[in-house]
Amino acid sequence: MKDEEGNFLEKETHIGHGKMESMAGDPHRIYNTSDIAKYNDVIAICEGEPDAWTAKQCGIPSVGIQGANGWKPHFTDLFKGYEVIYVLADGDEPGMKFATFVAEKLSQARIIPMDPGKDVNKSVSEYGPDFLREKVGM
Fold first, then answer.
1. CATH class as words, domain 30-136
2. pTM
3. What is the tens place of the pLDDT at every residue in 70-111?
4. Where are the domains of the chain?
5. Where are the alpha helices (DSSP H) in the chain?
6. Cα(39)–Cα(35) distance, rounded to whole angstroms?
7. What is the per-residue pLDDT across 59-69, written as a single tens digit (0 to 9) for each?
């Protein structure tokens, strides 16, 4: 969100809706499944499409899950065979709850928390792409 001068707000507010909305009745899907289809030893799971865009732009194969409650049981099978799965956690309570939930489903998962109050996108915007690559050890 932006203020009246066009500057991005530090703290976003979404009254009566989430940050991103789907059509009514639209099932949760994984964003950027093409990175699952490519051969990689590692992949990152992000909460939300914008964080997946950002991680991918940093050179990290990644997918986005639609919201903190977006994980579906059938998603688990898609991640079998990866050496490491980075769960890029938003730096807030719902973000860590999401990351912990996903990590419990995937034995090769490693939770990578962002700084308090930041998600992947805000972290890379503030600290640059090397910040995220270093966080995951790439």
1. alpha beta
2. 0.82
3. 899 999 999 999 999 999 999 999 999 999 999 999 999 999
4. 30-136
5. 34-37, 49-57, 93-105, 120-127, 129-136
6. 8
7. 999 999 987 78
